[in-house]
Write a structure and sequence with these properties.
This protein is mostly helical. It contains five helices and no strands. The protein is about 85% helix and about 0% strand.
């Protein structure tokens, strides 16, 4: 949920009308930081098994790439953003698969 909130907040910040590209980049980075992604990642790394932690870490890092793509000036319609968004989606779906497997193992 935290990563999703961060992504949506970054999209909103990227879509705002900014006269200064540095202000736009700062707003996008603030949106990421303000969502609590770093804290959520650390919590998972400290408490989850290795497979889950690795999968969540990959999703987190792919979202950081989305952040840097947007902060570097690419728009939501750009190919660069679409590629970063796709990579993040792939990493997030992979993390969900690992999490479901982990939760299923707990039920047994």
């Amino acid at each position: 949920m935290t990563l999703r909130r961060a992504h949506e907040a970054m999209r909103l910040a990227a879509d705002e009308d900014h006269a200064d590209p540095q202000v736009r980049a700062a707003r996008i980075r603030q949106a990421f930081q303000g969502a609590g992604c770093d804290e959520a990642r650390e919590r998972v790394i400290l408490t989850a098994g290795a497979d889950v932690a690795t999968a969540i870490d990959a999703s987190y890092h792919s979202l950081r790439q989305v952040r840097e793509t947007l902060a570097s000036g690419h728009t939501l319609a750009s190919e660069e953003y679409q590629d970063a968004r796709q990579a993040h989606g792939d990493a997030t779906r992979a993390a969900r698969t690992v999490l479901r497997r982990d939760l299923t193992a707990l039920e047994v």
